[in-house]
Structure formats: structure tokens, C-alpha cells
Amino acid sequence: MNNNSLSLILNIVLVVAVGFLYYLHFSGKESGTNSTPVAGEGQGGVMIAYINTDSLLSNYKFFEDMQNELAEKKGKAERQLISRGQSLQQEASSIEKRIQAGLMTNNQIKEAQQTLGQKEQELIAYRETIMAGLLEEEKVLNNRLYDSLMAYLKEYNKDKKYQYILGYTKGGGILLANDKLDVTDDILKGLNERYAKSAKPVESNKK
Fold first, then answer.
1. Taking the CB of residue 42, how many other CB atoms lie within 10 A of it?
2. Which of 39, 42, 44, 15 is nearest to 27 (CA)?
3. For the chain, how far is it from start to end, CA to CA, in angstroms?
4. Strand partners for 164
5. Which of 77, 85, 191, 205 has the fewest CB atoms found within 10 Å of its own CB?
6. What are the DSSP calls for 102-144, one per residue?
7. Distance CA 65, CA 202 (A)
8. 37 lies in which domain range?
9. What's the number of domains the chain is made of?
10. DSSP 3-state assignment of 54?
11. Is it the case that residue 96 has pLDDT exceeding 50?
12. pLDDT by residue (tens digit) across 120-170?
């Protein structure tokens, strides 16, 4: 699972949010107000905070464990594919040696070639199935991460009362943000504490 894909999910609202901030900025100028936002408070008294999603993904233990879990599954699949490929290659080499030694009839050679061709197609189909399964697994893990984050943010915001908690990422829609509005560390602390207390963390589900 890569960070960019999840950052994209977490920043779905950025275009709308940036447009809203743009409106607030110029409406404030037109009304003659020049108040400077305090921590968590935007123009017009709108409460705003943001999360650095790059930092979040780098330090959230749940995400780290999911990445390790997926990497383990990818490694296992890769080893299986390599093993099957090597077995097929060895079988083909053995047949080739027998042909060169004149130990096979034309009919046997034809039958062996057909068998090898069928096994090759089966290996290709197996590889595609494995790849599709891993992509689906990555999608499921991304959804689990997103749901985990959103569930915590709703709890977190019950007391904070932010109208917007934005996702900030390098190269994203927000080019500059006030550090006073950054709640990344606070969110990370809460997420990791909740995950540590979880009855069934990711690693305990492995068999």
C-alpha cells in the first residue's frame, strides 16, 4: 500500500475547502476586517485545523503494521511464483536434454510441448489471480485505515468543534499552512494510544 493513494483519499475535500478559504479571504477584505486568525480559528470565526497526512502515515502504528502485513503477503506470493517458475523451467530443461539425446519420439516431443504450454498458461493465470488478490487486499487495508482515522476524528472533534479538519500533504492543494493550526501530533498520539489498547491489533491476526 503506498502513501500517495491514501493521501489522495484523505484529501478528497481539499478542492472545496481551498475554494472556501479563498472566499473567506476575499470576503474578509471586502468587509474591511483584518483580524488575524488564532489557533484553530479561521476568518469569520470558522474553526479550522489540519493534519499532515505524510507525517500521519509515517508515524501511525496501525498503518505501519498493515504495511508489514501486506509486504509479508506480497513476499510469500513472490516466493510461490518464483518456485513454480523454476519448477517449470527445470522441467523444460529436462525435456530439452532428452530431445537432444534422442530419447524422445516425435509424438512424445509434441505431447511434452503441449503439456509445458498448458503449465505455462496455468502459471500466468495463477500470477494474475495472485496480483488481483493483493490489489484487493491493499484496497481493504486502505479502507480500514480510512475508517479508523475518520472514527477517531469524529470522537476527537466532539470537544474541539472544528468546522474543518483538512488534510495537508506535500504537492497537494494547500501550499502553505499556519503551524498553529496543525493538530497532527495530537491526532497521532490519540490514534496510537487507541491502537495500542486495541484487543486485536493487526499483528495478532497473523497465523
1. 21
2. 44
3. 21
4. 48
5. 205
6. T-S-HHHHHHHHHHHHHHHHHHHHHHHHHHHHHHHHHHHHHHH
7. 6
8. 3-205
9. 1
10. helix
11. yes
12. 999 999 999 999 999 999 999 899 999 999 999 999 999 888 999 999 888
